[in-house]
Amino acid sequence: MWHLDINTGNFSMTEVAQRIAAYLAECRCPEGIIFAIHLVVEELLTNVACHGHSPEIRLGIEMTAGHVLLEVVDSGVPFNPLEYEVQGLDQAFADREVGGMGIYLVKEMMDELSYTYKDGKNRLRAVKQFAP
Description:
Helix content is 34%, strand content 30%. The protein is α+β, with helices and mostly antiparallel strands. It has a 5-stranded antiparallel sheet with strand order 1-2-3-5-4, with helices on one face. Strand 4 and strand 5 form a beta hairpin. Helix 1 packs antiparallel against helix 2 and helix 2 (31-52) runs antiparallel to helix 3 (101-109).
């Protein structure tokens, strides 16, 4: 598994995205999947950095025939995004409360999600499948 350790105090999402794209392109990942992984990673890293209060995030990515596995590990506030219920999806955008749409995006874009909290670490695993 490819890993990237990210300091949440001073990371560049552009640099992170470039490194992810380079790794996935080297693995011959389809462009549409690279785009989906980029959006999901940006959302997850932003949430951890802004709300999780973790000094560091470990991002792991592994590509095999037909899927990309993404793992985000942090030592921040315990939070299971799979239990978060997005409110107001049936409301007009202007009438909705701010927040939650990023988690909704992650749930919609990925094919499998799992979460554990163990030994002071949040661990979110996400799988995106594609035709090899």
